[in-house]
């Protein structure tokens, strides 16, 4: 009975012990698999983290490179650009995976590329508070376009009197005297020298060809002589386009012109108003006249594409021709002025006829034209001199209710706007690169390599182009 009770007592625990042993054996078999699985997950997570750190490192390196923009370039010209010699300073071993990561900064768009410099200038002029400069110029252009006269500059050649077909010989004919001269000839010669020939020679000495740029930047020389109507049609057409016609894409052209006038030195970087000199300043307050002498006549160079000495001459010739055309229009549209010159011509013609005893007859109409042209040339030269001294002249020479004061830089603006923004941008890049030599970039790419993983990130300064427009 004792044995039976023992077997009964111990038989009750045999089945649970068997079950527990089965569970322990299963765990021993599965545990290595679980450990291997979690080890793989852990290793993969570490790799994902290191790859993420690699991406972050590439982004951080590229953005850090942008932070190294050249301070002198920005302070001088208001443009962002990374000096190519400073790119390696953005590299650091403290970012990215712990070991084995390699970073390389690859320069992208060059600042001095045509499209790049255009975008940088547009960004600066529309973002950095310089928009008011453009608005002021737009208002001035609207005022100029509102000055519409009955006679257009393009019609100058049609105003030429038919009686002046042979030029100055119409009013100073060859009398054909050789051996013997009449008694009145000496008096006639003195009077003609004083009243006609000196006026003609004075106008002729102030006559010069004009050199104007085409839209593509090529320079075109226009030779004109208002005394015999040669070249007036071409001169009138070109000046009408330059002064009164807003070209296509005027906003982009204005951006280029105002940036050029705001950051580069011209030969007349000031204006005199009421006897007080007001110096031009950059948008950040620097006096342009205090720029070093090595930067003299930069704006003239940008406007013409010529070296500084020739550029200055071209600008003055353009000013002279423009003012001549406007003075001619003013006289020809003012009946009082025309009557004054006509009266003077008739008086001279009658005096010549009286002195020569009726043998010499000068057509008053031709002489009137000679007097008008000589006077217009004289006024244009005076205006050019005044403008070159920093003074302002009224755009329209006559008396009107609301005139527009013009200064030297306004005529340079006309020259710049006549040309394509691409042409002006390339000239601006040339001048900037001369002042600050070197390679500057507006975009960089960071190439990051770690093992068999390679990522890249491109970073660039703000541009007015959308991401889809940038390759």
Question: What report would you give on this structure?
Answer:
It is a single chain. The chain is mostly helical and 471 residues long. Helices cover 53% and strands 10% of the residues. It has helices at residues 2-11, 14-66, 71-77, 114-127, 131-145, 185-205, 232-243, 250-263, 298-304, 308-332, 335-355, 364-388, 408-417, 421-435, and strands at residues 82-83, 102-107, 210-213, 219-222, 270-273, 276-279, 393-394, 405-406, 440-441, 443-450, 453-460. Strands 2-10-11 form a 3-stranded antiparallel beta sheet, with helices on one face. Strands 1-9 form a two-stranded antiparallel ribbon. It has a two-stranded antiparallel ribbon with strand order 3-4. A hairpin with a 2-residue loop joins strand 5 (270-273) and strand 6 (276-279). The longest helix has 53 residues, at 14-66. The relative contact order is 0.17. Residues 467-471 have low confidence and may be disordered.
